Every structure is written in structure tokens, then in C-alpha cells.
Fold this protein.
Amino acid sequence: MMDHAHDLASVHDATERLLRAVAALDNAAVTQASRLPGWTRGHVLAHLARNADALVNVLEGRPMYVSGAAREADIERDAPRPLDVQLDDVRESAVRFQEASTAPGDRSRTVELRNGVTDRAERLPFRRWVEVELHHVDLRIGYELEDLPADFTEREIRFLVARFAGHQDVPTTRLATDDGRTWTTGGGAPGDPVAVEGTAAELLGWLAGRRDGSGLTVTSGTLPALPPL
């Protein structure tokens, strides 16, 4: 079950953690490459701010983005800004998201995100938490998948396992952590089941497209090539 208050508090904590880390950078560092191909750290920060505003749009009944092209143009426009401007934008947009998320309304209602994806309004704080945590890792400033809160890592693994369940390009894949937790995903592609083991951080990195799976152990079959998120 969703715990709306817990997730909003977690988003706030993750945002503050990211802001403190980014504040230690300088303007030159913001222009340097992130872990995302073609994106600087400034691109990642601009995306985080615009994503918060996009989720406000969703909560208030507007389209998440005017268009895909407009989304990309906004990120490109905002990416070169100085560090202090980036920090203010991420902080202020985070406040707007928190305010929209706590406004009165039916949190069980269905809302529409990008590309026709739908979800319940009560799940948006968790989706925002994912954005903040994973993009903090993407900034390449010393925050790694191993540093993520344990409850977040497990929930995001479950979320991605559900996302790939039945996918036509993913064979049945059984995942296991070194401490005994297990999940099953895929099942839409032919072939024998695949068995994969590793730490929770390595499994999350592979499922989320942040690692290539080389840190995992495949005990049966061949590690599938996952489709992009």
C-alpha cells in the first residue's frame, strides 16, 4: 500500500540530500558530463526541476508536458545556467510539487503521465522519489546506487520487476539477492528461464539501465538485454 506522507517526506529528504551535495560544486562542474549520455550535470538538474513542475501539471489536471519537443527544449534551455540558479530552481520546484501533492483531492484518482502512461495520484510522490534518487546517482558526484535508502531500493526493484513482467522482449527472469530476496519478471519472450543473482544495488542498476549487469551472476541462461525505460 502507498504511504503518501512517508513518500512525500522521503522525497523531501532525498531532495535536501541532493541539494547539499550539488551546493559543494562550482559553475564549471555543472557543465561537466553526467552519467547520462549527452547530458551534463546541468541537464540533469534542469530535468529534475522541470519534472517537478510537470508532476504539478499532472496533479492539477493539465498535460504533463506540452509536447516531447517542448520538454527537451526546456531542458536544453535551462542546462547551461549557473550553479546558484540551478539550485534555486530545483529547490523552488520541489516546494511547488510538495504543495500540489498535499492539496485536497482524491488521491485514488487516475492521472495521465507521458506517452499515455497512467497511474494513481497517490503514487506520484514515489515516482518523484525515483527521479530524485536515481538522478542524484546520474550526477556522478559520489552518490552511488549502494548509497540509496534500502527501502527505496527494494520498492524500485519491485516497481521495475512489475514493469517488465510479461514484456515481449524479456524471457522469464528470476532475480535473487545475496540475502535471499527473490522476484520474477519478464515471461513474454520465448526461451528457458534465466536465473540472476547479485546485490540489491546491482540488480537495481541493471533493471534501471544504470549498470550493464557485469556485477551480476547469471546461474542459468543468458542475461537479457532489457528494453529502455
